[in-house]
Amino acid sequence: MSTSRIFHSYHLDISRSEEDRICYIILPEKLKESEKPWLDGIALRCRANMVVISGLDWNRQLTPWKVPPLKGCSFGGEAPAFLESLCSDLFFNVESTLMLRNPRRYLCGVSLSGLFGVWAAARKAVFDGIGSVSGSLWYEGFVDWLASCESVDCGFFYFSLGEKEKDGRNARLAGVEDRTREVMALLRSRGKTVQLEFNEGNHFGPLIPRMEKAIVAVCSSDL
Fold first, then answer.
1. Residue by residue, what is the 3-state secondary structure of 26-76?
2. DSSP 3-state of 9
3. pLDDT by residue (tens digit) across 140-188?
4. Under DSSP, is residue 207 helix (H, G, I), strand (E, B) or coil?
5. How confident is the model at residue 203 (pLDDT cuts 50, 70, 90)?
6. Cα–chain-centroid distance for residue 168?
7. pLDDT at 32 over 60
8. How far apart are alpha carbons 39 and 41 in whole angstroms?
9. N or C end of the chain, less CB within 10 A?
10. Three-class HEC string of 142-206
């Protein structure tokens, strides 16, 4: 049975497993409630602890640097501070509560949190698998930044996109499929295992089936 609690400003939904493995899932607050019915089931299926993190300032805390506004939304570029808070504080708190020692650790996200996952894996050697569902890899400067990184320690990356995402009217957003393929090529050139899956529809919906596929993929990558 999943439990919920507040840690600092974040809302955590946690489903326990007996395994020494943990998957963090970053979801927008408005979509969080829809994940609860399947959280325990996916924890059992994947043999891993599941932790949904919500309550973030999405455009501010999940973006690696500032870029021009898009559709009236500004991007704060505070992902470095959020990643530091995860690694120095939240991971320790959650994993000590679950009595995990040096667990296999995975991260799955959607849209900007999918971008955050790939970016974070290139910044810190703390993840064993990343799932990026419609990740915002169109983000200005991201492909060039990844190409400049000396190393990426995470070994497995799962990407999924909606089949219609490339047909969007906004040129920046419509470039997501091309940018995703460029990111995949960079990761493969560094010996990483990379998987891409297309789904019916556009960006978010339906979110939960897509997120479930990502979680299964990353949690199965080292079994």
1. ECCHHHHHHHHHHHHHHHHHHCCEEEEEECCCHHHHCCCCCCCCECCECCC
2. coil
3. 999 999 999 989 999 999 999 999 888 878 888 889 999 999 999 999 9
4. helix
5. confident
6. 22
7. no
8. 5
9. N
10. HHHHHHHCCCCCCCEEEEEEECCHHHCCCHHHHCHHHHHHHHHHHHHHCCCEEEEEEECCCCCCC
